[in-house]
Amino acid sequence: MTDAPPTPGIHHVTCIAGDPQRNMDFWVETLGLRLVKRSINQDDPGTYHFFFADAEGTPGTSMTFFPWEDMRQGKVGSGQVSRTAFRVPEGSLDYWEDRFDEYGVDYDERVERFGETVLPFSDPDGLPVELVAVAVPADDPTVPWTEFVPEEHAIRGFHSVTLWLADPDPTEELLGTMGFEEVGTEQAQGDTPGDERTRFAASGPIGKYVDVLPTIQGGRQGHGTVHHVAFQTPTDDDQQAMRSAVRSRGLQPTQQIDRHWFRSVYFREHGGVLFELATSEPGYTSDEPLDDLGGRLVLPGTFEDRREEIEAGLTDVTVPRAETADADD
After folding, report:
1. CB atoms within 10 A of CB 231
2. CA 267 vs CA 42, 118, 242, 249: distances in Å
3. What pLDDT score was predicted for residue 323?
4. Considering the domain boundaries, does residue 5 fall inside one?
């Protein structure tokens, strides 16, 4: 073990999509998340980077996407995040099944996992996602976005990610180094190929669980797969301590990289999953007022000097609005 402050849990999850408008429509209108940032992939500025979150972009709530339109379809396999799960209030899964029927969303039978009810489904690119019914406490830090989904059913940040790994042991030891505690093991259910699912819990209120499943099933990155999972290291000091702790496990984390809304360190864990450490500050309101989050294309740093060129290369997208959707009914 190390002296690094334990991570509170997941900061964000970044995935690969295909058509950007289809991605936008699904995550905003169908699932009811707020577009809190419309930007570009800072390593590939010809590609959008969308951030969908709660009403305020609270750490632990943002699902982000690179819509690489020309990339092939992906396949979930070993060395990947196989499923991303979100919390929803207890009693809301009937609402979600009805909504999925209305919007033509592909979903599976509910399963029970560690005493909680889970509704698995897929987004339009085939990305495996889950809703987990939980008791949301009165002091929960998330702020539901209610433009399309009422508060009593709205998604309330991350519940967990599931990792598929050929050899889980080194990753499980790493999770311990990061401050996760093993809290249970049970027989795997559904479409997961492993025999046993092991759950690890962080210290925070949202995005606190990482589940590990053994599998040697091959996969490939592409549409419908997770690119990386980011964990909260709230301050620079927290991040530097965690970076040192990760290095002590024989891994090779990058230097800190300024991502404009947070500062990041990246590394591949032992099983091949790309992990990120992300700070809480400065946050999504550092360059847009809260009321206007996602309202314009934000080009961080020197990319602003290339706005005309960058905008010309991006597909036009329209952010769904409730009043527009109502008018179309």
Report:
1. 26
2. 17, 30, 12, 12
3. 72
4. no
Q: What is the pLDDT of residues 237-269, one digit of tens each?
A: 999 999 999 999 999 999 999 999 999 999 999
Q: Is residue 4 part of a domain?
A: no
Of 225, 212, 224, the residue nearest 269 (C-alpha): 212
Q: Which CATH number belongs to the domain containing residue 278 in this structure?
A: 3.10.180.10
Q: How is the chain split among helix, strand and coil, in percent rounded to 5?
A: 20, 35, 45
Model pTM? 0.95
* Sign of the alpha-carbon dihedral angle for 278, 239, 205, 138: negative
CA distances from 144 to 8, 54, 58, 237 (A): 20, 5, 10, 30
In a domain, 259, yes or no: yes
Number of structural domains found in the chain? 1
Residue with tokens 């969308």: 50
Which residue range forms the structural domain that includes residue 34? Answer: 10-328
Q: How many CB atoms lie within 10 A of CB 74?
A: 21
Q: What is the largest CA-CA distance in the chain?
A: 57
Strand partners, 187: 196
Question: For residues 6 and 179, is the Cβ–Cβ distance under 8 A?
Answer: yes
Label residue 191 left, alpha or beta by phi (over 0 means left) and psi (-120 to 50 means alpha).
alpha
Pairing of strands 10-17, 62-67: parallel
- Per the domain annotation, does 1 fall within a domain? no
Q: Taking a C-beta distance cutoff of 8 angstroms, is the pair 159, 86 a contact?
A: yes
